[in-house]
């Protein structure tokens, strides 16, 4: 999708005013906002990848719980008051 923002120079217009008018026209098209929103957009992970990550987290939690029961690992304590 191409968006054209064209500005022609008037007779007594300074280059600074021309640039200012052009940048206002580009802002009006919404192109800059769209590009900034796409800049940090994270790709959606596939179901298989999410499933693997979830299984990995569950396995790690079970291992930690087992180590806590055996006394090889300290139970995690909260720092300061709990937030809700």
Rg: 28 Å
Overall outline: elongated
Strand content: under 5%
Number of helices: 3
Can you tell me the residue ranges where pLDDT is under 50 for at least 5 consecutive residues? none
* Span of the ends, CA to CA: 45 Å
Q: What class would the helix/strand composition place it in?
A: mainly alpha
Could you state the order of secondary-structure elements as H and E? HHH
Beta-strand segment tally: 0
The main sheet comes to: none
The overall average pLDDT, rounded, is 87
Number of domains: 2
Percent helix range? 55-70%
In short:
By secondary structure, the chain is mainly alpha-helical.
Question: What does it look like?
Answer:
The chain is an all-alpha fold and 84 residues long. It folds into two domains: 1-41, no CATH class; 44-73. The chain has three helices and no strands. The longest helix has 24 residues, at 47-70. The radius of gyration is 28 Å and the shape is elongated. The two termini are 45 Å apart. The mean pLDDT is 87.
Provide key terms for this protein:
57% helix, elongated, mainly alpha, 84 residues
Topology:
Elements (H helix, E strand, L loop, with lengths): L14 H15 L1 H9 L7 H24 L14
């Amino acid at each position: 999708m191409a968006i054209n923002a064209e500005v022609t120079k008037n007779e007594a217009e300074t280059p600074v005013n021309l640039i200012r008018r052009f940048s206002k026209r580009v802002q009006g098209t919404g192109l800059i906002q769209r590009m900034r929103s796409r800049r940090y957009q994270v790709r959606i992970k596939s179901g298989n990848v999410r499933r693997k990550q979830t299984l990995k987290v569950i396995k790690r939690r079970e291992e930690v719980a087992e180590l806590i029961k055996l006394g090889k690992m300290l139970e995690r304590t909260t720092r300061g008051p709990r937030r809700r």
